[in-house]
Write a structure and sequence with these properties.
By secondary structure, the protein is of the alpha/beta class. It folds into 3 domains: 13-337, ANL, N-terminal domain (Rossmann fold), CATH 3.40.50.12780; 366-436, Roll (Luciferase, domain 3), CATH 2.30.38.10; 439-535, ANL, C-terminal domain (GMP Synthetase, Chain A, domain 3), CATH 3.30.300. It is built from 17 helices and 25 strands. The strands form 5 sheets. Strands 2-1-11-10-12-13-14-15-16 form a 9-stranded mixed β-sheet, sandwiched between helices. A 7-stranded mixed β-sheet has the order 7-6-5-3-4-8-9, with helices on both faces. It has a 4-stranded antiparallel β-sheet with strand order 17-18-19-20, with no helix packed on it. Helix 2 packs across helix 3 and helix 10 (258-268) crosses helix 11. The longest helix is centred in the N-terminal third of the chain and has 17 residues, at 43-59. The radius of gyration is 23 Å and the shape is globular. Bound molecules: adenosine monophosphate.
Length: 543
Amino acid sequence: MMQGMMMHRPLLISDILEFAASAYSEQEIISRRVEGDIHRATYAQTRGRVSQLSHALVELGVGPSDRVATLAWNGYRHFELYYGVSGMGAVCHTINPRLPAEQIEYIISHAEDTILFLEFTFVDMIEKLKDRLPSNLRYVVMTDEAHMPSSTTLSPLCYETLLEGHPTTFDWPELDENTAASLCYTSGTTGNPKGALYSHRSTVLHAMSAALSFMNALGEGRKILPAVPLFHVNAWGLPYTCPLVGASLVMPGPGLDGDSLFELMDAESVYSMWGVPTVFQGLLATIQEKGRAPDGFCDAVIGGSAVTQSLIDAYRENGVEICHAWGMTELSPLGTQGNLPAGMASGPKAECDAFKLTQGRRLFSVQMKLVDDNGAAVAHDGVSPGELYVRGNSTISQYYQNDAATASAIDADGWFGTGDVATLDARGCLTITDRAKDLIKSGGEWISSLDIENIAMSHPDVRQCAVIAVPHEKWGERPLLIVVPEAESTADLAGILALIGKHVSSWQVPDDIVLTDRLPLAPTGKISKKDLREIYADYVLPQ
Ligand code: AMP
């Protein structure tokens, strides 16, 4: 085969920042800081600070491929870590602070993190865990000297002091584009979280695909607010995609409630916000209270859980168009985008509404197939459901240091099994119809049914049990525990919930328990969650 005669340049994350710092030098990162004020920095200024950070990391002894962890909200320092760590060849490991303490402890050890950069809001939490974390782990608090907490337990370094005095340029190494750049553990699993290890190449290609597919939201000079955390799959890639297209980033810090978001968006004229439905529900309440949307707000990208018709309608009434997206940690994460196909907008409204509720069409470089229970291909006819498998340049080929999880997720042809059940139509439009994985997604965060069931089963009053997702207006889904008790009259329901609360985060405890004398079984003899979800579909949870 004749080879093309073109140069091969590695696709590197440091190039995105260098590009933005020159081509879009005046575009900004605007952050609401945990210190309380608003901070602004252009991409050009940010390149200077990122360079200083990389020098500081070298001085701290961080070497190629070392894992550097973050425990932080959406803000400019977290953005700097994304680029400073990966740019010098190390791996930026973002940790979700909402995970139960045991899982945070597990992933820090599993990733073999060498340094943990944390906001001062998380110092108390980490102090409590310190004895169970690796003894050689060092701590840096992401603030200035004036806000440094006095922690004799962690003896942390100060972020701003670390940067001081270092040069504002860095000679970025020309890494192999397949070098690992960042690591994110997904808790969308039973048992311990699993790591998705992204490369420079996969990250740059993901940003380029997203820039193409979400053109209506992204563009030079637009202000984009990632309400999805930077610890959730790289905030859906926005810290890479925005600099690539010359959009400014508006970082909300920890303030994800409706009032805080409204105030920031209004002040900054944010054009598009990206996040899970729960955050949009909160913002909607504020919009309805004020009788208007924030100034300049026109576009919303919503994913992580299914979008409802009422949310689409309510935002449209306020001049905001919703684009429904589907993705996964394992896909970097964007898989689909739900913008209307050309010409559909001028057609019947019912057709547009129906399309908006689907998860939309795939991004370039994401390929999809459906398979049945026997592994046979399912037709892309828009009606036949099958388990969704994907492959592409920004999809994991394996989990980090977890052969067992890899073996059960990747099929013989190298496709990744999503655990979602879906239909695909002829133009590749995806509709998620069910979930094969036994999990509940509440406000964008996962709860493992099996983990809760195992804890509940250790209570003497529980003979058999099952946890299922019940629809919830604010959180999307909430867990309901269904129990076959040893003796109905004496079952200690409060005691069962208290036992669960001892082992998991408070938001993972089921909202309610119902007693039953038997659980429906599937033909395999396993408890049929599908039947249970149907039986309890209209169950009203206590407020
Ligand atoms: P995560 O890796 O935590 O981002 O979770 C990915 C999973 O969230 C997917 O496999 C789906 O089960 C679910 N999910 C993501 N986006 C959507 C969506 N738009 N509609 C329905 N489920 C979704």
